[in-house]
Design brief:
The protein is of the alpha/beta class and about 325 residues long. About 35% of the residues lie in helices and about 20% in strands. It has one domain: Alpha/Beta hydrolase fold, catalytic domain (Rossmann fold, 3-Layer(aba) Sandwich). The longest helix is centred in the middle third of the chain and has 26 residues. This is Lipase domain-containing protein.
């Protein structure tokens, strides 16, 4: 009998050790191992408990200005001009126009200046009006493993904030003429950039802010990061495969189609990217109208009956508070 009991215990231990850690360990509401896409939509398995690259993090912290800033205007819509922090000549010799608004776009994990989300937003703006569009390429950190990138986002965001302060000093452009837009991990980055400016930027727009390792992270985007902060949630919910944070982080939080799944989508990646697509469409058409909700259950059941507020757009004087449901179609312009 004793031998049988011993065999049972050994077998149980073996079975327990064979169970994937993803089923045993929960991190910030997520399984330990999650699938997160790069800028090209390729999914990568991420260990949320991996050890970060401290050498890279120390470098990023020492030099948070280590970003690339690429200017596009109606005079150079395809080929960018590089702006260099603390190099006034790089700005004064460029096509930067302090008399028109400035829009900064920050990409997500494993992405760079060439990622399609940047191009989509840039083109929408330049077709609509005369603006300065600056793509913040933070690939030095974004190319690292996900855990390291998360840890380094605040420092990179501070670098972006310092760059915008430099633009203000060099050109005289007011912070109220600046709109900082970020997607996924970049959404938390632009929140930190706005924080570096003391919340003086006109707008921060967080496009489906990344969820893994951010639900309880004090460095995530928040409502005080700009005069007006807006978030568009398209892949949230309780599903541990969700890529977005799925909870209120801004002055106004929009939940298109309930904020969990999007029409025409069958994957988390498709849902996640819709935040960018929706935002770009609203720059052109300003046609998505949300209704204010008082509870998450109203968002889910589509029973919101509160005041209306338009989602997205390029309005630098926009204001609003609360959470909103927006219903869209499945094809552009949605």
């Amino acid at each position: 009998m004793r031998n049988v009991l011993l065999l049972v215990l050994v077998s149980a231990a073996y079975i327990a050790s064979a169970v994937p850690a993803a089923e045993e360990v929960q991190k910030d509401g997520y399984s330990r191992y999650v699938q997160i896409p790069d800028g090209e939509g390729v999914m990568h398995t991420v260990d949320l408990e991996a050890e970060p690259d401290m050498e890279l993090l120390n470098e990023i912290t020492r030099d948070p200005e280590n970003n690339l800033y690429l200017l596009y205007t109606r005079r150079n819509q395809i080929v960018s001009q590089t702006l260099v922090i603390n190099d006034a000549a790089s700005v004064t010799r460029s096509n930067f126009n302090a008399n028109v608004p400035t829009v900064v776009i920050a990409h997500g994990w494993l992405s760079n200046q060439f990622t399609s989300t940047n191009t989509m937003i840039r083109n929408a703006y330049l077709r609509k009006s005369d603006v300065n569009v600056i793509v913040c390429d933070w690939r030095r950190l974004a190319a690292s493993d996900y855990v390291t990138a998360v840890r380094g986002v605040p420092a990179v965001g501070r670098g972006l904030g310092q760059f915008l302060a430099f633009i203000n000093r060099t050109t005289g452009q007011a912070f109220t003429q600046m709109h900082i837009v970020g997607f996924s991990l970049g959404a938390h980055l632009v929140g930190n950039a706005g924080r570096e400016l003391g919340g003086r930027a006109a707008r921060v727009t967080a496009l489906d802010p990344a969820g893994p390792l951010w639900n309880y992270n004090v460095n995530r985007v928040r409502s005080s990061d700009a005069v007006y902060v807006e978030a568009i949630h398209t892949d949230g919910g309780s599903d541990t495969g969700a890529l977005g944070i799925g909870s209120n982080v801004a002055n106004a939080d929009f939940y298109p189609n309930g904020g969990v799944t999007q029409p025409g989508c069958s994957t988390h990646l498709c849902n996640h990217n819709r935040a960018v697509e929706f935002f770009a469409a609203t720059i052109t058409y300003n046609h998505m109208v949300g209704r204010r909700c008082t509870t998450q259950s109203q968002i889910s059941s589509d029973t919101c009956r509160g005041a209306e507020l338009r989602m997205g757009n390029d309005d630098l004087t926009k204001s609003g508070t609360g959470m909103y449901r927006v219903n869209t179609g499945s094809r552009y312009p949605y």
